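Today's session is about reading a structure prediction critically. Students often jump straight to the picture, but the first step is always the sequence itself: look for stretches that repeat, for charged clusters, for runs of hydrophobic residues. Only then move on to the predicted structure, which in these notes is written as discrete structure tokens rather than atom positions. Here is the chain we will use throughout the hour.
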Amino acid sequence: MKVKKTLVLFAVGAMLAIGTAASDGGIKIGVVDIEQAISSTEEGKAAREEFARKQREAQASVQPLFDKFRALEEEMKAKKFVLSDEALYQKQLDLVELQNEIQAKGKEIEGQMQVDQRRLEGPLLAKLGEIIESLGKQEGFTMILRRGTPGVLYTREALDITDMVIERYNKKG
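Below is the predicted structure for this chain, in token form.
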């Protein structure tokens, strides 16, 4: 799958190179680090702080279950020679039930965190996309790639236009 994406990217690059070679201008490629752009804007910092707060709250909501699990586990270890087989079996069932509850709560929280992250970063990504497209047209870029995407293995720092994107975002905001 990654090989196909890489081949497609190289094919697109080759077509662009051939297409632009026929025109008067040369090829102008830019690279943007979206994560850095989000982290460098005031809105992005606020969104990341809000997301971190939500993560802490989620962790705090599941912590009592972890504490209860550890306490029950310690109690079972301490009393395993004193308890009857039936009582020991019941404690083991309680542990399994609590473990399942922790896993279910963890999956619920993980899903909610994904929704929250999309909700917080979605508008930022859309605004960044508009700015990048506008910048590309105004500055005559042939293509602008996202740093860290499949197929982009190396780029020179001179191609990085992240600071320009951040500057325009902050002006527009």
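Discussion point for the tutorial: The mean pLDDT is 84.
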